[in-house]
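Q: Structure tokens for this one, please.
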Amino acid sequence: MKTSDFYYDLPPERIAQHPAPERDASRLMVVHRDTGAIEHKIFSDILQYLEPGDALVINTTRVMPARLLCSREDTGGSGEILLTRPLGDDTWEAMTRPARRF
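A: Here is the predicted structure, written as tokens:
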């Protein structure tokens, strides 16, 4: 499996910059595995879809602005650096795209 398998077009204006004022009013997309049908709901509807024995994983991590867009002065080529974890002393673990050019 490649990370490119997970790339999809997401226009910048569709990326939430702040949490919804009422957190349980945030958007919820439901995909029915048996039919592939998609429903758009709000998060407070989630209890309609949970059954005994289901596991609900809650991600409480915060997103930090760590995506650096780059361009080469000599060729005009572009790239991207995603800082993933501070290692200390102003050093970071990072992912790059396109990786071979970095």
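A few notes: The CA atoms of residues 6 and 39 lie 21 Å apart. The chain has a mean pLDDT of 86.
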